[in-house]
Design goal:
Layout lengths: L1 H16 L4 H25 L2 H23 L4 H7 L6 H12 L3 H43 L1
Helix pairs in contact: 1-2, 1-4, 2-3, 2-4, 3-4, 3-6, 5-6
């Protein structure tokens, strides 16, 4: 329960920092919270950090695109702060620490894991926004064909 609240705060603070409108701050925090719930549950279920990061980012992307239409705001307002709890900061820190300790095999392992998680987050957000754009274009094309 603590982690869920901290994920909410971890998304809310960047929202404040990026001057998100007050009416959208609650929704920004919920984006990070839902992404973290998905990440944590999938990590417990599968044990795969990269896959869990990907699914967490997909949930953040779906939530952001949906709420953006309801709140009449850009989806990036919700997705950028929403992925902050998913960012693999500890893996990057550990990789840097292992490099400083000259433990290159552990540094490579944690570095590759961190880069993979970052790529999975980017792909998750990219895929959901692409799907929403394709659906939106198809709806527009159907409207033009009816006219």
């Amino acid at each position: 329960m603590e982690e869920i609240f901290l994920a909410f705060i971890a998304s809310l603070c960047p929202g404040i920092m990026y001057n998100v409108a007050r009416k959208n701050l609650l929704w920004v925090g919920l984006a990070g919270m839902f992404g973290w719930i998905t990440y944590a549950s999938m990590l417990e279920y599968s044990g795969n950090v990269v896959f869990s990061s990907f699914l967490g980012a997909v949930v953040v992307g779906l939530y952001s695109e949906s709420v953006a239409r309801l709140r009449k705001a850009p989806a990036m307002v919700f997705s950028i702060p929403g992925i902050f709890p998913l960012v693999p900061g500890i893996a990057i820190y550990n990789s840097t620490q292992y490099i400083a300790e000259n433990n290159l095999s552990k540094a490579a392992n944690t570095g590759i894991e961190a880069i993979s998680c970052a790529g999975a987050i980017a792909c998750g957000i990219l895929m959901t926004s692409a799907v929403f754009r394709i659906v939106k274009k198809r709806k527009k094309l159907k409207l033009y064909r009816k006219v």
